[in-house]
Amino acid sequence: MQVTTFGEIMLRLTVPGNQKFVQTDWFHANYGGAEANVAVSLALLGDQATFITKLPNNILGDTVIQKLNEFGVDTNRIVRGGKRLGLYFLQPGAGVRSSKVIYDRNDSAFAASKDGDYHWDELLDGTDYFYISGITPALSEELQATLLSAVKFCQDHSIKVIYDANFRGKLWTADEANTFNSKILPFVDICLVNDEDLENAFGLKAFDNRNHQAIHEKDSFKQSLEELTTNYPNIKLVASILRNIYSAQKSDWQAILLTDHKFYESSTYNMQVVPEVAAGDAFGAAIVHGVLNNFKPQFQVDYAIAAATLKLTIPGDFNLSRDSEIRDAMTR
Amino acid sequence: MQVTTFGEIMLRLTVPGNQKFVQTDWFHANYGGAEANVAVSLALLGDQATFITKLPNNILGDTVIQKLNEFGVDTNRIVRGGKRLGLYFLQPGAGVRSSKVIYDRNDSAFAASKDGDYHWDELLDGTDYFYISGITPALSEELQATLLSAVKFCQDHSIKVIYDANFRGKLWTADEANTFNSKILPFVDICLVNDEDLENAFGLKAFDNRNHQAIHEKDSFKQSLEELTTNYPNIKLVASILRNIYSAQKSDWQAILLTDHKFYESSTYNMQVVPEVAAGDAFGAAIVHGVLNNFKPQFQVDYAIAAATLKLTIPGDFNLSRDSEIRDAMTR
Amino acid sequence: MQVTTFGEIMLRLTVPGNQKFVQTDWFHANYGGAEANVAVSLALLGDQATFITKLPNNILGDTVIQKLNEFGVDTNRIVRGGKRLGLYFLQPGAGVRSSKVIYDRNDSAFAASKDGDYHWDELLDGTDYFYISGITPALSEELQATLLSAVKFCQDHSIKVIYDANFRGKLWTADEANTFNSKILPFVDICLVNDEDLENAFGLKAFDNRNHQAIHEKDSFKQSLEELTTNYPNIKLVASILRNIYSAQKSDWQAILLTDHKFYESSTYNMQVVPEVAAGDAFGAAIVHGVLNNFKPQFQVDYAIAAATLKLTIPGDFNLSRDSEIRDAMTR
Amino acid sequence: MQVTTFGEIMLRLTVPGNQKFVQTDWFHANYGGAEANVAVSLALLGDQATFITKLPNNILGDTVIQKLNEFGVDTNRIVRGGKRLGLYFLQPGAGVRSSKVIYDRNDSAFAASKDGDYHWDELLDGTDYFYISGITPALSEELQATLLSAVKFCQDHSIKVIYDANFRGKLWTADEANTFNSKILPFVDICLVNDEDLENAFGLKAFDNRNHQAIHEKDSFKQSLEELTTNYPNIKLVASILRNIYSAQKSDWQAILLTDHKFYESSTYNMQVVPEVAAGDAFGAAIVHGVLNNFKPQFQVDYAIAAATLKLTIPGDFNLSRDSEIRDAMTR
Amino acid sequence: MQVTTFGEIMLRLTVPGNQKFVQTDWFHANYGGAEANVAVSLALLGDQATFITKLPNNILGDTVIQKLNEFGVDTNRIVRGGKRLGLYFLQPGAGVRSSKVIYDRNDSAFAASKDGDYHWDELLDGTDYFYISGITPALSEELQATLLSAVKFCQDHSIKVIYDANFRGKLWTADEANTFNSKILPFVDICLVNDEDLENAFGLKAFDNRNHQAIHEKDSFKQSLEELTTNYPNIKLVASILRNIYSAQKSDWQAILLTDHKFYESSTYNMQVVPEVAAGDAFGAAIVHGVLNNFKPQFQVDYAIAAATLKLTIPGDFNLSRDSEIRDAMTR
Amino acid sequence: MQVTTFGEIMLRLTVPGNQKFVQTDWFHANYGGAEANVAVSLALLGDQATFITKLPNNILGDTVIQKLNEFGVDTNRIVRGGKRLGLYFLQPGAGVRSSKVIYDRNDSAFAASKDGDYHWDELLDGTDYFYISGITPALSEELQATLLSAVKFCQDHSIKVIYDANFRGKLWTADEANTFNSKILPFVDICLVNDEDLENAFGLKAFDNRNHQAIHEKDSFKQSLEELTTNYPNIKLVASILRNIYSAQKSDWQAILLTDHKFYESSTYNMQVVPEVAAGDAFGAAIVHGVLNNFKPQFQVDYAIAAATLKLTIPGDFNLSRDSEIRDAMTR
Fold this sequence. Notes:
The structure is a homohexamer.
Chain A: E1 2-6, E2 10-14, E3 26-32, H1 34-44, E4 48-52, E5 54-55, H2 59-69, E6 79-80, E7 87-91, E8 100-104, H3 120-123, E9 129-133, H4 141-156, E10 160-164, H5 174-184, E11 190-192, H6 195-202, H7 218-231, E12 237-247, E13 250-259, E14 262-265, E15 269-271, H8 279-292, H9 297-311, H10 323-330
Parallel strand pairs in A: 1-4, 1-9, 2-7, 5-6, 9-10, 10-11, 11-12
Antiparallel strand pairs in A: 2-3, 7-8, 12-13, 13-14, 13-15
């Protein structure tokens, strides 16, 4: 079984410690992106994972490829060209202080890429699963068209499509997201969707109040997931993380999985850490890993939430956890 | 409107991490002082701020000036001369371990400065507000005389005086502080006073028990503030931070403001951070900013406590927050 | 009064921050070992402390000696020779992530040392107390024989023996430990024993359930301690730390001391820190310091738990606390 | 006397040590640009210096302004707006290894700025000298037009124009440079020109062979300078640095100044350092400082080469040297 | 064409800066070994490279594999098992101060590996070239037998053997080396041999005096190389680096290549850097790259010396240079 | 044989890298002083060394003592008390840039110490050699008296006096130094004197021209040394380092020793390093070590210059070299 993920990978430049931009002489450099993160997770779990993107033909592009190779991701199908690597600056928040992000991803090789850059017959040759997220269509209309032509190719060639809703309000509006998602959801076999995504990206009301704690209102959330699978019967599996957030370093995490009209709930983790990013990608990868390896649904959702909470403790975008470590975390 | 602050700025040498003196080969260097911190805050908020002190005529003195210039503070009236820059060594505490401070500020250019070093007619020319604190009179009798001659000058030239009580038990006794404060309070228009200052510096009993949690005993504190403004009717505005402290990294923060015989209370912030220093100076600066910009009292006190809690998250002595960041913190 | 401790000291190589092995280009280097830690604590508290071990005749061996000299430990009786310095790699845990240890101590100069390497008549000449732990006999049968010949020497020469049970499940089995301990306990005057040691190392059942919180089940623990002193009436003093552990950075700590058939309990500390290692050694050293200086039992146990909680805040293996700092922590 | 400089300031992200891109997790961050560097130098030398540019309206833009304020540069006339801050990545060379630069400055606020962004009557109000370089016209035709309108404004308002040729082969061709320079040189009063610029930017042949050591072939270089001032008699002063480069860390530096048809040569410095950047800007600033303060030509050229060689030892783009340090370096 | 290299890869722990062991709290961690370095170089140059070794089944073993994957080396044939990863501590020298190495590689998984661990029919399946060095036979007699059985397998299956003499006086004596080399040289097709190796490892006298500068005495060295190929006519190509060493950071480097009875000499590089390690491995890899890609001998030797001098500037054991960078260095 | 050294030890705060004060947020912390450095060297060489000074009764004082203990120096006779630890800030020079020192040692515990602080009968009890330098008398007249009473005590108790001239022009004038030295030299048995000291401190003309290279003018220097021993026949041994300095990182070092009317010259070392400080103290210590161990004069001077050049490569003030390392350096 072979999984291909497709999306943008960027350079993140982070202000260290609790400093502010004006205080620092150093940026911590880190490469990541939702779909690349998933490919790395899968490769470390022993699955065959290919990552497709477009990278500039310079040393930064080469560096990205080496960082992916390190974890065993197949990078041979990455398209080279374009002007620059997308990047963003991050000044993490603390206490009452918000985090600050300065996106500098316009005109990146991927964001400016064209449908014609991707020859799906070659790129997806031999693939069994195609993993994409809602970030890519938010980047350009061209990329929306690209995604739709890709999923059509998948449908024609019996490649299963996995879609992580991943709504990003800074990149497009809820209306734009809804419009696009109504076009792509009919092609999706497995759907990952956060509590925040359901309403913004899919137009389904999940909670009554804006400041909900998701685990407390699990029931209304479940109703929405059922509605989703009723609307799109092609979706065979939906998985979600629900979080109650109490403070910057205190939160509860639970996962829920719907398949064959039945819900499976993971145990709940009380996290007391300043969380690292990309837990959702670790979760998505673990769900896919379960599909590839025929995990039973209950084990699959338990395994995936353990992978997600483990990622909260690991610096960087990639979940560097191996199978034994996830199973160890399941017992704690 | 132009504000002038006057006091000492020192070099702080801090042992990094949780290390002890004997473990470290490195000291983190940082320049700060109550009145300089206020000037920086005001300059960053867009007000015209001048800082006056006496600095040695060496590279460390030059460095202090450049650090202040960075944030837009007017440093042109700083007096140069004297033997050395005051400094102190700090080994921060952790858990049951107390922090350790080694002061090395004797004979500093400022502490040894004389009344004749400061020509108030030139130094305060054009100033509307004069900001001082209870640290300066604790340094020498000469500086007590200097402050008294300065506030008399202010009275004669319609310059408003802002006084932050800032009692430092390591520098003088409560008796000495009371004696001096009874001389200067008749000249004060705006007074900032902590829960710990009221009793030690002003001789007013604020709480019944020594280990009080200030927010819980707000009422007795208010009585003392009223007594203060009754004793010194020249004081038009008093503002205070009240804290309940639960552990090294858990505390509640609320502010209170008394003006025109009426109390205004801010909302309460539950802080879960290892706090950085100088929140009181950030608070004082924000109160002054409100005065300069005609904030309504309720907004003023809400704004000031947000500035203070924001400072708790920022390394160093200076509150690097801009107006938009304080307003953002008010909504969190 | 002179104390001699005997055991292995190793190089610890720690992955910094929350990184994983594959992410780091740097290891933090630190030298420590239970018995060396005790010697350092005692020397810093002003007692005469000698540390005996076997170290390789290379620069790493020299470095260990200099690190011990720094704190005033007498290192003149250390035996030199053997192949290598024992070392281990540590990747600290975080949240649901377990810590990972890779031991690399086989064939170390100490682990491979022979009975004949230690001439107790010379090495213990002038000593009043001999401090050992249950780690040493776990390293080899030869070292078991060495320890037994040493304690017999002590018995013959009126040197008191202090034994810290310190069971290490990675080095030997509970059965092996029980067998050896039944041979050495008849020589022991002062015994330090953790809640986890009692059952594994001494074969005494301390708690009914496996996931006990020790402070909550203090009574059953006390019964076991009484049983220990009944079985081995030569043991004049037993001291233990009891912990309730709520999360990686939240725990309660209390100590208990049994002497003259009477129990003394310390106050309980609520710790909210990511704990540093070797609190048990700090505790043991403080108990011994109390013995050397004729502390009353209640003060002794209060002093020792303060020393232990202080160590939780100090990086490295050595408790760099002096007497005044421990007394200060007792009041917090 | 007041000097205004105009140009782009960028964020430089440098790979630390001798590492390569793929090895580093950290970039050193540094802000600089030829014309900003000159403004900083002048401000530190005590001259009134204003820097004009266009910066994005985000925190990085604010940070740049604070960094300039630190040294006393007037930043009040900086235009805000546009998409992003220009930046570039630098992997320094070593031995036979070339340095690698990845420019990422397209679409920067300055590079994309329009003539209409700059209202010269306001921006140059009160200015006596206007300092520009050949980097700006290389960025866009729009900026060429902007510069020409600016220098016309200067001519009409008796503002002297200082032009540093600063040819950058990565930004435009020699032909393009020659075409533009033939338009701007008639407006220039003071010209700074490197050995590499003369041919590429001004179309004057300075040396016979490509791999010349400039000091050895000073005579042919002088001829070209004379030709320049003959062609453009409006140019009252020309100054140049000549270098013999023997290896990455060994070179000779000499300066030459032509005014009133007479040449002045500085002494020659044998440099044995890995040189920091921006020595040319330090030189240019020192020449301007000499003009502002009526230095005699021989002293002016000696002073300027000392400033340049001093900059070779200072990390970052800004020459943090004060007058006393330059005079000290002149004696070494 | 596919190359397989076989040998040990170790963890190097280096004291940073000019510090001594007793001064440092940090070790820089780096993985490398002659044959692994060659595999990395080849993979980065675009060749198919497989590395075979035996690594312990722990996280350090996993880490080594990921570090090799990063550069595209095929690690699928690495044998897992054994006790520990070999390691060594390095305190670099400076000026008159010698570097200090503490080897701690006894009992490493590779050093203790047995002939039966390596199934050459599987491990070398599909390989065209087999690269080994004189370090491996110095580790144990078992590994000598292993190497001899491997090269016999190569002879039987038309796999070319490349042998880097790499004499290590700390691991075995010249006599032992000569004895073994006389057995393996009849199987070698390509031989890499340093000036220091010829005499110690092959028993051929290369220079008259002990403190020779190799480039100055090139002629006598050439005679020895001719003697080598006369003795072992199976050796079709010999390549060597010759160095004149003037000080810790000043040396001349030249390479020499003998094939078809003809000598080819590279140009000479004057290096003025504190050299990084493993230039010889970079050289060997480049020679092999030339063989794989049919470089003409003169170009091959020029290319290889450029690769070697480039490595002198790159931290760590791996030559991170790509083809374009080597060609660029050839022109400097 | 037991050596006691007496003088001040200070905290040095150094700006890291090539940065300037205004650029750094960190100071490197290091403790050192001429006489303490000598004690450390001797202890590491295996001699019995005691250091006497006066240190403040705070954590910085404790830290100094621990740093000395690390190397085996006897610190039990150090006097405690006084106001503060002396310190100085150092910004190292580079290229044409001078180093900058800001002394902040006034009022230090040692500088302000009184004759009555030192009870020589107790402090020098059991000592065979007393080592002092010309820095101490430069600090105060009180310390001049102290030194004179100490050397008289030595004369009365057959303790040999070693005096390192160590003239410091920032602390006193040449006239003051000459006056004091004429009083103390009659008590000196062994004298260490630099080329710069002879004229300034002893009033003996050593070189004709001011910018001499000392090795080139060895003969005139020898004449002065002879004159010194003629004037003070009590001086049995004089040793000096002579240096030719070519650039910041290039110099020649040679030592000369005069005893029994005969000169011994060491070989000359060509140093190509950025030198660390305190080579002179390493030299002095090695001379004393030779005296204690009856080295022959030629070996003694060779050994001492090797120790000095070794120190040039070791960060910090202490020469961390052991006997074997010095002997190794002698062969390079």
